[in-house]
DNA sequence: TCAAAAGTGTTTTGGGTACACCCATGA
DNA sequence: TCATGGGTGTACCCAAAACACTTTTGA
C-alpha cells in the first residue's frame, strides 16, 4: 500500500483589518500556475509537524526563528482516494496564526518568490481540495478565538487592547462593544499582562493606548462567545 | 516515500455508570497478546473514515447497520517516525460513541472474539502509542459534551433525562444538580424531544420517567460547562 | 475646537447555582 | 409507609449587554 503523506498549511494573519491567508502559486503539474496552500511531502524520518515547519520555511521564506516559534495546530487529515490525480496522497493539514509582518513575508529566493498573502474573501479556486481545507481552517480559527487565548498570536509582541479587539472583529466579522471587550479580557487571569509604563499612539489620532503582552494562560474560562451565536434570534 | 496509513478507533460507551472503551487483544506481532485500540490499514481505494468503519465491523463484530450509522469523528493523526517498530506508519485516529449494547458486542467470529469493553480506569498498558491516543480521545469526548449534543449518542434511541444526566456524570466524573440539568437540557431547543405519552420505570423503584429522543440540534448554545471548570477556586 | 480613539461607570437582565419541596411507584 | 428516583418552584448571585460619559491626543 504505497501512500504518499503530505502536509498542508493554512497560515493566517490580520492585516489592514482583513483576514489574510498565505498562498503559493504552483510551479509544476498538476495545477501548475494555480494558487494552493503551502505544504509538501513528509520525509521518512520526520513527523508531520516537523515537515510542516520545514515546508513553511522553505516555501515562504518566513524567518526561521519565527517558523520555529510558530503556534502550529493540527486541523485534520484529508484522505479521499482521488484528491490528488497523480497518486494516493494523504494530507495532514495544519493551521497557524502569525502577526502582521513588516514586509510581505515572501521575498526570499526560490519557491518563496511565489508566496503571497491573500485576503480570505478574495481567494479564488485553489488546487486539489485546498478550498475545503481553507474553509475548515477558517472555521476552526473562529471558534478557537472563543475559548482559547490564541488571538494574541495574531498580534505583535506588544499590542493594545484595540488591536486585540480588531483581531476578534476581523476574524468574526462582527463589531464588539469596546468597554465590555476590555473588561472581559482584563478579567481573564493570564490572558494579557500590562507592560508597565508603556503606551503607543495607534493611528496618529486619539488617546495613546496602554500596551499589553500575552499572558501565561492558554484557555479562556468562561469563553468569549461570538455575538450572533448563543442567542436564539 | 513508502508510508503505511492506518486508522485507530477509540470507541466509548457508558455501561453501569462507568465509561468503557472497546479494546482488542492483538493476535500477532508486534505487541502480540497486548491490548490495543481496534484499527487497521487503509486500503488503496478508500478514505480513512471508510477504513475506520470497515475495520470496526471486521474486528469487533458490531452490527453492520450500527457501524454504518455510528457518529465517527476524526481525532487527530499520529505520525511520529518510530511509533511502529516494523515500518513507517501514519495513523489517523477516530472517536466514536455508542449506546450500551444489549450483549457484549464482541461475540462475532474471527478477530471479533478478542474484542472487549474495558472500563477506562482499568485500562492497562496498550500497544504502540495507543495509550496516548486513548487519553486524547477521552479528553476530547469530555469537552465535546460541553458544547455539542453528542451525549445522546451514548443513550439508546429513547432515554430518560436521568440516563442522559448519568452520561454526563460518568464522562465528567462529577455529580450534577438534577433540577438544573433538567432545565438546561430542556431549555436548549432541539437537544431532546419528548416522546408523547411514553414513560418508563428506570430501576424498578421511583416515579416513571418521561422518555425523550435526540432532537435535530447538534451544537449546545450556551455550552453546558463542567462544574470545576470556568471557576477560579 | 473638533474628531477620533482610549478608558471608566452604571443599570439592567438573564442564566447558573443551590436548595426546598411535591409526586409516583415498588417493596 | 418508607425509600427511591422523577419533577417543580424559587431566591440569590454573578457576568454579560447596553449605553452614557470622561480623557487625551492630532489636526
From TrEMBL, chains A, B:
Belongs to the Nudix hydrolase family. Residues 205-233 are annotated as: Disordered. One of its GO terms (molecular function) is hydrolase activity. The keyword Hydrolase applies. InterPro entries: Nudix_hydrolase, NUDIX_hydrolase-like_dom_sf, NUDIX_hydrolase_CS, NUDIX_hydrolase_dom, WH-like_DNA-bd_sf, WH_DNA-bd_sf, WHD_NrtR. CDD domains: NUDIX_NadM_like (cd18873). This is NUDIX hydrolase. Keywords: Hydrolase. SUPFAM superfamilies: Nudix (SSF55811), Winged helix' DNA-binding domain (SSF46785). The keyword Transmembrane helix does not apply. It comes from Streptomyces subrutilus. PROSITE patterns: NUDIX, NUDIX_BOX. Signal peptide: none annotated. Residues 2-148 form the Nudix hydrolase domain.
Amino acid at each position: 500500500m504505497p501512500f504518499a503523506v503530505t502536509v498542508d498549511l493554512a497560515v493566517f494573519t490580520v492585516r489592514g483589518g482583513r483576514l489574510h491567508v498565505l498562498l503559493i502559486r504552483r510551479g509544476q503539474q498538476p495545477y501548475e500556475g494555480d494558487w494552493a496552500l503551502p505544504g509538501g511531502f513528509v520525509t521518512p524520518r520526520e513527523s508531520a509537524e516537523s515537515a510542516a515547519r520545514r515546508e513553511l520555511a522553505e516555501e515562504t521564506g518566513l524567518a526561521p526563528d519565527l517558523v520555529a516559534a510558530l503556534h502550529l495546530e493540527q486541523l485534520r487529515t484529508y484522505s479521499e482516494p482521488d484528491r490528488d490525480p497523480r497518486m494516493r496522497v494523504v494530507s495532514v493539514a495544519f493551521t497557524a496564526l502569525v502577526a502582521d509582518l513588516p514586509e510581505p513575508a515572501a521575498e526570499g529566493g526560490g519557491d518563496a518568490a511565489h508566496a503571497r498573502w491573500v485576503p480570505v474573501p478574495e481567494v479564488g479556486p485553489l488546487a486539489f481540495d485546498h478550498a475545503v481545507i481553507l474553509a475548515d481552517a477558517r472555521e476552526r480559527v473562529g471558534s478557537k478565538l472563543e475559548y482559547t487565548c490564541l488571538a494574541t498570536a495574531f498580534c505583535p509582541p506588544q499590542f493594545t487592547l484595540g488591536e486585540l479587539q480588531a483581531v476578534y472583529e476581523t476574524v468574526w466579522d462582527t463589531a464588539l462593544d469596546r468597554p465590555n471587550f476590555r473588561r472581559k479580557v482584563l478579567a481573564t487571569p493570564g490572558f494579557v499582562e500590562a507592560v508597565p509604563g508603556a503606551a503607543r499612539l495607534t493611528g496618529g489620532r486619539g488617546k495613546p493606548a496602554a500596551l499589553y503582552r500575552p499572558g501565561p494562560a492558554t484557555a479562556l474560562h468562561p469563553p468569549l462567545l461570538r455575538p450572533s451565536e448563543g442567542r436564539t434570534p
